[in-house]
Design brief:
The structure holds 2 protein chains of 2 kinds.
Chain A: E1 22-27, H1 34-41, E2 49-55, H2 60-69, E3 79-83, E4 96-98, H3 105-121, E5 126-132, H4 135-140, H5 143-159, E6 163-168, H6 175-181, E7 187-194, E8 197-203, E9 213-215
Helix pairs in contact in A: 3-5
Chain B: E1 5-9, H1 13-25, E2 29-33, H2 36-43, E3 50-53, E4 56-57, E5 60-61, H3 62-72, E6 78-82, E7 100-103, H4 109-122, H5 135-145, H6 153-167, E8 171-177, E9 181-188, E10 194-196, H7 202-205, E11 212-214, H8 227-231, E12 236-243, E13 249-257, H9 265-289, H10 295-299, H11 306-317
Parallel strand pairs in B: 1-2, 1-3, 3-6, 6-7
Antiparallel strand pairs in B: 4-5, 8-9, 8-13, 9-10, 11-12, 12-13
Chain lengths: 217, 325
């Protein structure tokens, strides 16, 4: 079986494989583990996969360090970051591309498309994309460009047989907006944290475990 | 997806010709322009499916062009196909336009461009609003109810006038939500004819199972920064989706008011009745227009009737049984 025909798997997480082109919304408390969950879901299944981060809550170098801490390797030919923090700086050696502000959705989209293409040009056969988190994009921009940005992001991932994982803390955005942006995703992974015990539940995707599944980071 | 009409914008005639040739080879019609001003005039009419533009143009940039397009034809997707690397692109004045970007030095760039254009058009990736999950099927269903000669005006004028009186609101209307705009079949209290889909609140109503109520748009982040609603003096809104017999949502029956207000359960029950009546009128007219007495309608194949195809698809996903006619 060729790599393109199989879906994306998540080693060590209670998630079954998801089809190529799937976009997932990961929701949960920011301090309750969604960052680690997203980083784990972005671990490359093999060396031919690429990984692309769009970060707005933490800068590029921190993201790559945290990725390494959960077991991610940083091959700059196959792993890169679009850094949307105010303090972000370009770092060609580490494949970090700074936009300067999460307000600049046009700039974020251009850097994303450019980096996506370059990972393919460097030999990646498919790419996992992670957004941490959606909140700054949603909170600081008006809704129309946010929808455009999300459709553009998820559309490119869908047609390229990629995987998209976008994290958001529901407490950081209003309920109406969260409900309407969720339309752009194929399914949701909900993380809860109670008394230090974490569990996830998958909504909207077929062939996944039913109910809450314990996770440990 | 061949047969698109694509605007190709590039100040360099040779580069423009190569891009144009590649898109024509992909089966598309191409109109070419050398400047922002030339392109903006035509693209603003909405007759173009997609715009492919170089970043640097003689009288501005591809983002200047996109910004103008967003004002007049906001759903039209734009692709920067350019030699300019991202760090040479100044997006600071156009942070909200959002475009696709494809470098000319991408391997097999012209083939990639054709595929990208087809994808952004088919998937509607640059629309500034949420999309229903089965949008193509929804539009196919809408086409069955939205034909010349159905002559709903008088009936809906009466219905919306009754609703305006019943609820004591500024405006009551029936609107159909098509691919890019909402068109009003009747509008008591105003003379609105159409509204772009990204500005229309019914864009959100058609995602609802039942009813969308917004007591104060300024307090709802989905609408608070929508200047068009200010211009139309819409502060409060209640809308019920118009749903075909098998679940395709084609429009909405709505009320708007210039002051914040709530809607009681009794009022919402009546609003649902108005919506049911409007949908019944549309259904009857559709059958009359097709010379269909209802019995023959049920015998049509999905291939002959897109609305039936939607219904059949819904049935196959949901074994609840569905209606028979």
């Amino acid at each position: 079986m060729s790599i393109q025909r199989s879906g994306y798997s998540f080693d060590g997480l209670p998630l079954e494989e998801v089809p190529n082109g799937t976009n997932l919304l990961v929701t949960g408390p920011a301090l309750g583990g969604i960052r680690t969950l997203l980083l784990r879901m972005l671990l490359r299944g093999n060396r031919r996969e690429g990984t692309l981060f769009i970060t707005a809550d933490t800068d590029g170098p921190t993201t790559l360090s945290d990725y390494a801490a959960v077991g991610g390797d940083h091959d700059p030919m196959r792993v890169g970051v679009v850094d949307c923090t105010e303090t972000g700086v370009n770092d060609a050696d580490r494949n970090v591309h700074a936009v300067g502000s999460p307000n600049d959705l046009t700039g974020v989209g251009i850097e994303f498309s450019s980096l996506y293409e370059s990972l393919y040009a460097n030999g990646a056969e498919r790419v996992r994309t992670g957004v941490y988190t959606l909140a700054p994009f949603v909170v600081y921009s008006s809704v129309k460009p946010v929808y455009r940005f999300l459709h553009t992001l998820t559309g490119r991932i869908r047609t390229a047989d990629g995987l998209g994982v976008c994290a958001v803390d529901p407490d950081a955005v209003d309920t109406e907006t969260l409900t309407s942006i969720a339309q752009a995703f194929d399914g949701r992974v909900v993380l809860r944290s109670e008394n230090g015990r974490m569990a996830i539940r998958v909504e909207g995707l077929a062939d996944q475990p039913d109910g809450w599944q314990r996770v440990e980071f | 997806m061949a047969g698109l009409t694509i605007a190709c914008v590039d100040g360099d005639p040779e580069a423009r010709r190569k891009t144009q040739d590649a898109l024509v080879d992909g089966g598309h019609d191409v109109v070419s322009f050398g400047t922002v001003a030339e392109a903006a005039d035509l693209v603003g009419t909405g007759d173009v499916d997609c715009v492919v533009t170089e970043y640097s143009l003689p009288d501005g940039t591809g983002l200047d062009l996109t910004s103008r397009i967003r004002k007049h034809s906001p759903d039209t997707p734009c692709v920067l196909f350019t030699d300019a690397s991202p760090d040479r692109i100044d997006s600071t004045r156009h942070e909200n336009v959002v475009v696709e970007y494809l470098p000319r030095d991408t391997p097999d760039a012209h083939d990639s461009l054709s595929r990208l254009v087809e994808n952004v058009v088919a998937q509607r990736t640059q629309v500034g609003y949420p999309l229903p999950p089965e949008e193509d099927e929804r539009l196919a269903a809408l086409a069955q109810y939205d034909q010349p000669g159905l002559d709903t005006a008088e009936a809906f004028d009466r219905l919306t006038a009754l609703a305006q009186h019943r609820f004591g609101v500024d405006v009551a209307f029936v609107g159909l939500v098509d691919a890019h705009e909402e068109r009003f079949l009747a509008c008591a209290g105003e003379d609105w004819e159409s509204l772009s889909r990204e500005d229309s609140m019914c864009t959100h109503t058609i995602l609802e199972d039942d009813v969308l109520v917004v007591e104060d748009v300024d307090a709802d982040p989905r609408f608070a920064d929508n200047d068009r609603l200010d211009e139309l003096d819409i502060v409060a809104y209640a809308g019920v989706p118009l749903r075909t017999r098998r679940g395709a949502t084609i429009g909405a029956f709505c009320l708007t008011h210039s002051e914040p207000r709530s809607f009681s359960e009794a009022e919402l029950t009546d609003l649902r009745r108005f919506a049911d009546e409007a949908m019944e009128q549309l259904e009857l007219r559709r059958r009359l227009a097709e010379g269909d007495d209802g019995e023959t309608w049920s015998a049509q194949s999905p291939e002959a009737d897109p609305e039936l195809a939607v219904e059949t698809a819904n049935e196959s996903q949901d074994d609840s049984g569905g209606e028979t006619s």
